């Protein structure tokens, strides 16, 4: 059996230095309780178990080898991603949207659920005095995403693609339309 600290490592390196400690990064929190309420289920009911299984499958599929996750009390997933905070938040939002649209169908409103079910915690705020991941501390320390990071995650005003032709593109927004010549 693996401990939560083992699951939420920064890498597959099992040395003590690779544990999520100090400035080790962010842990995303996916709280299923609002979904349970919306579908009138409990973690022990058949529908609730379906929600948990589906959520775990979505996490496994979308995170893959780029991160790790663990389930706490059949209500809350904690996961790490080996990407920037902005990319991680965008990925976490996709996970929530997949779960919401599957279980709530047309009544799913992303803007209502994302703030309820998705959070972020600095790994050092979730560690107890022995350096172990503490679920209760993580839930107490959970926050949303900063406005600047949210804009970047959504492709906001500072977003620019990178690549071979990126320097040749006029990013000023003052484009000219050229007539097609035959």
Task: Offer a few descriptive terms.
alpha+beta, 13% strand, disordered N terminus, 182 residues, 4 strands, 4-stranded antiparallel beta sheet
Explain what this protein looks like in three dimensions.
The protein has a four-stranded antiparallel beta sheet with strand order 2-3-1-4, with helices on both faces. It is α+β, with helices and mostly antiparallel strands. The chain is built from seven helices and four strands, in the order αβααββααβαα. It has helices at residues 4-7, 33-38, 46-63, 85-104, 110-117, 135-141, 147-153; strands at 26-31, 67-72, 76-81, 118-122. β2 and β3 form a beta hairpin. α4 packs across α7 (147-153). The model is unreliable at 1-5, 9-23, 146-153, 155-163 and 171-175 (pLDDT under 50). Helix content is 38%, strand content 13%.
- Report mean pLDDT, rounded to a whole number: 75
Proportion of beta-strand residues: 5-15%
Low-confidence stretches: 1-5, 9-23, 146-153, 155-163, 171-175
How many strand units?
4
